[in-house]
Design goal:
Chain lengths: 197, 938
Amino acid sequence: MLTVLLAIAILVVLALVFGAILGYANVRFHVEGDPIVDQIDAILPQTQCGQCGHPGCRPYAEAISNGEAINRCPPGGQATVQALADLLDVEALPLDGGEEEPVSKVAVIREDECIGCTKCIQACPIDAILGAAKQMHTVIADECTGCDLCVEPCPVDCIDMVEVGVTSRTWSWEKPQGVGAQPVNIIATDRQVEAAH
Amino acid sequence: MQTPAVYSFHGGIHPPENKAQSLNLPLGSPRLPDELILPLGQHIGQPSRPLVEVGSRVLKGEAIAINNGFLSSFLHAPTSGTIHAIEKRVVAHPSGLSDTCIVIQPDGNDQWIELEPLDNWQDVSKTDVLAFLAEKGIVGMGGAGFPTQVKLQGAHKHPLTHFIINAAECEPYITADDMLIREKTLELILGIEMLQHLVNADNVVIGIEDNKPTAIASLQQLIRERQSSIQVAVVPTKYPSGGEKQLIKLLTDKEVPSGQYPADIGILCQNVGTCVAAYEAIQYGRPLISRFTTLTGDAFKAPQNVEVLLGTPISHLLKYADLNEKHLSRLVMGGPMMGFTLDTPEAPVVKTTNCILAASTKELPPPAPEQACIRCGMCEQACPAGLLPQQLLWFSKSQEHEKAEHYNLFDCIECGACSYVCPSSIPLVQYYRHAKAEIRDARESAVKSDIAKQRFEARKARQEAEAAEKEAKRLARQNAASAKPAAKKPTKEAPKAAPEPAVANDDAKKAKIDLAIAKAKLKKLEKSLLEAQEKEHTEEINALQIQVDETQKDISELERKVAAAPNATPTKKASPTGMSDEAKKAKVDVALASSKLKKVQKQLVDDPDNQELKDKAAGFEADLKTAQALLDKLGGEAKAAPSKAKTALSEDAKKAKVDMALASSKLKKVQKQLAEDCDNDELKAKAAEFEKALKEAEMRFAACSGESASAAQKSDKPVMSDEYKKAKVDVALANTKLKKVQKQLAEDPQNTELQGKTVEFKKVLKEAEARLAALEAPSLQSKEATPAVKNTVDTNSDAQRKLKIDIAIANAAVKKAEKALAKAQTLQSEDIDSLEQQVAKAKAHAQSLEQTMKNGSQSANTAPLDSVTDDKAAEHKEQLKKQKVTTALAKAQVNKLKRQLDAEPNSEQLQKDLASAEQAHQAEAAKLEQLTNTQENR
């Protein structure tokens, strides 16, 4: 009988000790905020466009961490969905609302039509529009994320979303077509010369 | 001269060299082409900024573009001529895209600008020499075009053990460096010595492949002659021994760690061409405007090396070296391993063009189709960077970029050795290039999204701060409102205290009032400070603290002033000497009576209907009068008669004033009640009565004061302003009534009674306003006429502007509606009809607005033009404008119909409509033309 009681007593004491350690560790090594939200937020494209139905990327990140679908970010495209799926270890769903890949766009104000109402300035989530009341506005193209939010508020409809074209500086090699395809314009494979010689 | 040790590097291949063809002929120099095309981005880094304008003349060697940032370069005119254009032209780039270029039309004189060599390069600081090299547009001529000054600057980070001159030229076909060494041996050696002076390395080694015996011999001979410490390391021919990292491994047995630069391990590499260019820049002041280029390949009848001006179109070189068009299958810039196919020979030679390869089909047959990887591992054996090409291929193919990076994808030098040996003809390098680009894009977009996030958060913080500020202001206002009664007390006390030392000078009085006000202010401030401290608005606290300190300072100053004032008063009091005791007594009586009277009057103001108070006031007045009379009598001897009359008069005036104040206060009270309960007829009657009384009192007062002051005109004005005031009150009353009713109406829109009332009130309001305007008019007329005119003009243009904006908005609405309509049409939704109606409505609105705008501008235009004699011209102009608008409208109609027709091409009705619309448009256009013609004829 004594041994049983002793065993119980020892276990209780051990439980209390470890409980105390865990409790202390919880206080001592407390992590501020939700790290998973930060990780999700880092993957999202930060256009702050609200197309996911949330006011900005971070709210959507919080929603995802609370179980919302990961395929609601059109600017991020399928790549973002894939990255989120890898991070959260869930299945990668097809992008909500079509398969089309995002094209990077930038807002351009037709400046002679601008009446200086400042409505687009208020709409821009990242302060990328410059201007003042009754003065012409313009978009800082380098900062524009192409989120579309300034187009709707414009009373004179003078904002266009222009595709950012490829220049020789942003151009990159295409991915080869794969097995069986005829490569085009590729050097570095002139072993046939050797064969011919 | 000792021969340095030569080591080996992993992998590498031995493709056929094909170097002999281009060395049969001596160095050629093509004549000037018709135009020189100089891309702004010939180097790694930011494109240069043009310094010249289209049409300006430049001399040979003149700078035409300046560096744009740190990693950038200058650009110089290769010959004298005029700037023909600065525009997009096809450049030598694998993408075949165009880029901004400066196009020079040579004048044929080839006239040099005055050159300024850097003679004292050994004496001036190294930074100056580097800056000089940058200004001469020197970039690495080996392949990448890295700005030389940046590379040399980077070499200063660590003490250099080796300064390696790259003369390996490992790629097949290319012999430009070989020819350069042969032709400019001395320049090369001198250039190396200059750069060695700048970097001060322990060893200077020229790395050269053993397939250039002539070049090696001439180098060794010259070095022996000059007894230079430069070493020549002859390396075995193997591709790619000319790669920077491979050459370093060959000559020093050191490997450049992944992700680092040679400078990090104390080694600097420079191409021979760069050394020669640096020498010519420093010694003669010549900028980089030409280079050695190999023209080779079976398609050339006369393959050779040429010294060619930068910007020369490749087509010009093809002609020079006698291209056989029939044999040409592919035109390649660079060597067969690392070069790229050119889509067009119009691209120009740039600073990094070392070879133009015009290959026949036999030389460069089209690559075989890609086959599956058989995991033979030959690519691994060939890779000079020691990577695992097969693994990288899997990862690149399956977009596993992280893993590819982990396998050091970015250490791949894209030499093409793996593709060359691959038995399955897999274009491995292209896979790697694609994967690298994808990874770089992802990094860039990550940076961009980080910036966007920062900006978004900054904006949010700003908005929150603004909201908090607003809230704080609102609270402060609230506090101010509650603190007002408290603040009133001291101000009230101040005048109370003031009458006692009646003779005390104005300054003291003023100071006291100021003091009271300041104290009240302090109280208020302290209160808001406390609140701010509670709510922890640190910024506010600071600002408030400063304010509190200031007011405290003010108070102490004012207190000092007030303390000084009583000291001054006794001396002043003493001045009216010779006054008898009686007189003094009488004065005291007067003062007492007047103070009592004032008190009662104040009470009366608060409670104007109190009969008792009125009686009291009358009694006090009588007392005051008798006391005053006594005083007058006593002081009469001393004072002159006119002054007596004045006091008597002022007595009357005072009385009138009191009446006036009473009446006006009563009136105000009644009006307030009226505003609250506007239908009360009794109150209205009362108000009218009071008004009458007030007027009477005022008249009386005016009569009294009018005698003393020559105020015949003045009294005129108050009467006027009185009426004016009344009219204003009426307007305000009517307004409030109207608003009230409208509010009720908004709550209960079906109430006809209320509607009737609103109409009535509106009428009343209008009448009142008319009255007011009538009253205002004469006063305005009395003012100068011009401002009034100006005013109208101003309002006119203002209205016009407003109209313009309205039109713009209306137009936008039309556009939006049309867009929605188009969408609906594509979706074939049911509400097309309603949308069409909307479009029509919006258009009608826009048109009507335009019409009014036109009318407005017409009247506005004609009005000022009336005064000007050119009346007809204006009319004509107007007509023209109108015509223009109608033409534009007709055109828009045509366009719209066309669009609709596009949507449904089979609709006959639409076709008919379109035809008629086009006719109308033509007619309008013809009219417009006629009008413009007549306009021009004038």
